[in-house]
């Protein structure tokens, strides 16, 4: 599980991850580098300081990329392992629909990214309007909904998206919420056949109409043939 140090958090807040010039990063680190691996100010060397800053920058980048997740059908389970061990940590996922526009809850949810990360909770979001497999898999959740995935169980959050309220629930009060077992991802065969299922499901009405029409046409042709056969004159044999 990714750990975020105070230094990495400071770098995130000061946007130091956007610094390209190492010398500028070193000067910035003079005021914020307090991690235990840094030498004392009196013995701080340029090489050691740069190594410390680079390590913090990498940590911040990893934390930022891990926190800012947009999950989709193809890799939801791979990233979260919600139903298959959950060794990647605790996740809180916002399920929403972006049609016709993104809900107001999306901005409030994204504002919780850094505070949640400080408690080792990774936030992500899923647009179920463009991810039919996840929409079907978590159809019981509804939308929009924030779901906490912890220890292969899922808990739906019913409160407001204020910092204190959400963090209290996600770290402690969730245990009082009714949890449910995380549904398993669809088997590989289902994933392989999903395009076909979608194609067929979207055309069931048309297919039924064609079959009914074909049956009526065959019946009419058969009746006409039988009528014509009866009307055909029979020649007497002499």
UniProtKB/TrEMBL annotation:
InterPro entries: Thioredoxin-like_sf. Signal peptide: none annotated. Keywords: Membrane, Transmembrane, Transmembrane helix. The keyword Ribonucleoprotein does not apply. The keyword Transmembrane helix applies. The chain crosses the membrane at residues 204-223. SUPFAM superfamilies: Thioredoxin-like (SSF52833). This is Thioredoxin domain-containing protein. It comes from Auxenochlorella protothecoides (Green microalga).
């Amino acid at each position: 599980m990714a750990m975020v140090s105070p230094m990495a958090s400071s770098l995130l807040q000061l946007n130091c991850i956007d610094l390209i010039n190492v010398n500028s990063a070193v000067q910035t680190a003079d005021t914020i580098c307090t991690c235990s691996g840094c030498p004392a100010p009196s013995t701080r060397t340029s090489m050691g300081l740069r190594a410390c800053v680079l390590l913090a920058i990498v940590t911040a980048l990893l934390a930022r990329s891990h926190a800012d997740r947009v999950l989709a059908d193809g890799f939801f389970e791979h990233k979260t392992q919600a139903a298959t061990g959950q060794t990647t940590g605790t996740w809180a996922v916002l399920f929403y629909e972006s049609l016709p526009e993104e809900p107001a809850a999306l901005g409030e949810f994204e504002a919780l990214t850094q505070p949640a990360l400080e408690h080792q909770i990774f936030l992500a979001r899923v647009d179920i309007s463009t991810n039919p497999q996840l929409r079907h898999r978590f159809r019981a959740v509804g939308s929009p909904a924030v779901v906490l995935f912890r220890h292969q169980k899922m808990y739906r959050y019913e409160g407001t998206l204020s910092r204190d309220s959400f963090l209290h629930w996600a770290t402690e009060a969730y245990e009082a919420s009714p949890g449910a077992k995380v549904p398993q991802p669809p088997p590989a065969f289902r994933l392989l056949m999903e395009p076909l299922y979608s194609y067929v499901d979207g055309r069931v009405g048309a297919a039924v109409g064609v079959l009914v029409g074909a049956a009526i046409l065959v019946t009419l042709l058969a009746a006409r043939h039988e009528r014509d056969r009866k009307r055909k004159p029979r020649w007497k044999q002499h």
